[in-house]
TrEMBL record:
This is Alpha/beta hydrolase-fold protein. Keywords: Hydrolase, Signal. Residues 1-18 form the signal peptide. Pfam families: Esterase. PANTHER family: ENTEROCHELIN ESTERASE-RELATED, IRON(III) ENTEROBACTIN ESTERASE.
Length: 569
């Protein structure tokens, strides 16, 4: 039971099984038929529930997925070799032995979109598109099973549990939570769609009613509450025996809490800049956020955020409400969003600070050149198949391939419905397919790239290409606004696209870009521009790192007669 899966495969690869699984759900969970993705999880240990032991990493356990439609209470659904599996392809390839098994149904809802397409997708339910935590999803209690060589037994699994609702966060003196219906998105999706935000208001907000504030938008993944801010310090006796494998240190949970409390102390100090900071909640049917742009598949999120949500927040919390007083920053997904929103709405924002951004050129789509390569999984060669790497550590050790990551997603959901990283890029950037779902940029099973889809991506979402194509028009609006930071050993090879962007920006003329592109030596993903702190500290200081840069930008660029005083007290 303690042996790794890899060892099982080496020793017993010839000892396969022929079992199948029969799954039912109790009528107490639903009187109605259900649609969704039914996932089977199989683990060789019970350290955690099997559903929480699947990842892109080498120690991943097993999962298999199938679509179910109109599944009725007590109706038996069979999971067999037809189910797509990860990291092995089929149930029959599982070596004989003892395991723990569990199933979960990720529920889909039916959407009648304004374009006439009818699609089935998972509605976010306040969890940020995480199927393991999505309220209303149903699952079984893990059971111990024995798989025998050559056996054709059917293993019975019964779903009896439901994930409960998530309680919304409560307002505090400094943190407010807003939710508004988006007319633009509701029209697109054919039902009410809401945007939310966690708003950090400045010290003295109530005692200075005359003040109007600049706005900083901290882009990133779904924020359940405003992160990195705490009015109370961690307990002095807080345990520090937790280990962060990512940063190779003990006690990281306490460090996180200490940094949150330090930010509170700075935020309320006498000389700290007074402004509004918001984190946007725009989880959707495909991912934990929308990438903050208009998309054929997701809808007009760029316009909804820029023209509906932000003015709503500024009106409610006395924002200055003009482009010169709005700024963008974030890392990874948030880094791409910050740069993209700045480029697509150049007059609405006065600067972006993009850390470790998702691919900003599809010539370097992670480790893939979508325009030159014919396959996303293997480098071209007449004699061999060299896998394209998907993730590495700071010394270059490959932890998984692009194929691994995409097979993981395909087991979770087909038709771009996994809620995973590669699928959300596809959902945001692709045109709508004939079936109403996003057109594949590459075949999810074979890796073959669709060049027509790649051409669509290039013209609509390749940020480097758009800047090159439109610099004569965009350059004057973006001068001094673009700042990019990236580790030169980014785990997902995101630095490769930054190099290409840097080459263009530094050579741009009429006008020059007058911004900043810097790299962290041997720094991994989410290096955000501070060479004086380890990344496990700097990643907790986005707000305090970029506010001085924002103030400098305001001083250099605010129009004549701008309000530069009411918010300085």
């Amino acid at each position: 039971m303690k042996k790794s899966l890899a060892l099982f495969f080496v020793l017993y690869s010839f000892v396969t099984t022929a079992q199948r699984f029969s799954v039912t759900f109790d009528k107490s969970l639903s009187n109605k038929a259900l649609d969704g993705r039914l996932m089977l999880f199989v683990a060789n240990n019970d350290k955690k529930e099997p559903r929480r032991q699947v990842s892109d990493d080498a120690d991943s356990q097993l999962m298999f997925g199938i679509d179910v439609n109109d599944w009725k209470p007590n109706q038996s659904i069979i999971i067999d070799d037809k189910a797509f599996g990860y990291p092995i392809r089929s149930i029959s390839q599982i070596p004989a032995g003892e395991y723990f098994a569990q199933v979960l149904l990720h529920k889909y809802e039916t959407f009648h979109k304004a374009d006439g397409h009818v699609v089935k997708l998972p509605m976010d339910r306040g969890e940020g598109q995480r199927f393991n935590d999505a309220p209303g999803n149903i699952y079984s209690v893990p059971i111990k099973i024995t798989l025998k060589k050559g056996s054709k037994q059917t293993i019975q699994l019964s779903i009896s549990k439901e994930i409960p609702p998530i309680a919304p966060p409560k307002d505090t003196k400094y943190i407010k939570h807003i939710k508004m219906k988006s007319e633009l998105l509701s029209k697109f999706w054919g039902r009410d769609i809401y945007l939310g935000a966690n708003v950090l208001i400045p010290e003295g907000f109530d005692t200075h009613p005359e003040a109007h504030y600049p706005l900083a938008i901290f882009h990133g993944h779904f924020p359940a509450d405003f992160s990195g801010f705490s009015e109370t310090p961690p307990p002095a006796d807080m345990k520090t025996d937790d280990f962060s494998a990512r940063f190779n240190i003990y006690g990281y949970n306490k460090i996180v809490k200490e940094e949150a409390y330090n930010f509170y102390k700075q935020w309320t100090s006498k000389d700290f800049p007074r402004m509004l900071i918001i984190e946007i909640q725009h989880a959707n049917q495909f991912y934990d956020d929308s990438y903050a742009v208009n998309s054929a598949n997701l809808g007009p999120y760029g316009d909804a955020i820029t023209y509906e949500l932000i003015p709503y927040i500024e009106k409610q919390f006395r924002g200055i409400g003009q482009g010169w007083a709005r700024f963008l920053y974030g890392g990874s997904t948030g880094g791409w969003e910050s740069l993209a929103a700045q480029i697509f709405y150049p007059d609405e924002y006065n600067g972006c600070f993009a850390a470790c951004p998702d691919p900003i050129s599809f010539q370097a789509y992670s480790s893939i050149d979508l325009y030159q390569y014919s396959n996303a999984y293997y480098y071209e060669s007449p004699w061999k198949r060299t896998p394209i790497p998907g993730k590495r550590d700071y010394l270059g050790k490959v932890q998984c391939t692009v194929e691994d990551m995409n097979y993981h997603e395909l087991a979770i959901g087909d038709k771009t419905r996994s809620g995973g990283q590669w699928d959300i890029w596809e959902a945001v950037y692709s045109p709508v397919g004939k079936d109403g779902y996003p057109k594949r940029i590459f075949d999810k099973k074979t890796g073959v790239i669709d060049k027509e889809v790649a051409a669509y991506w290039k013209e609509n979402f390749d940020l480097l290409h758009i800047l090159k194509r439109d610099w004569a028009k965009l350059g004057p609006k973006l001068q001094g606004k673009i700042h990019i930071y990236c580790g030169d050993m980014d785990n997902y090879y995101l630095n490769n696209a930054v190099y290409l962007m840097e080459d263009f920006l530094k050579g741009a003329k009429n006008p020059t870009y007058d911004g900043e592109v810097t790299y962290g030596d041997r720094a991994e993903h989410c290096w955000n521009g501070d060479p004086n702190q380890p990344n496990y500290i700097s990643r907790l200081r986005y707000n305090t790192m970029y506010l001085p840069k924002i103030l400098k930008r305001i001083e250099e660029s605010a129009p004549k007669g701008a309000d530069l005083s009411s918010w300085k007290y």
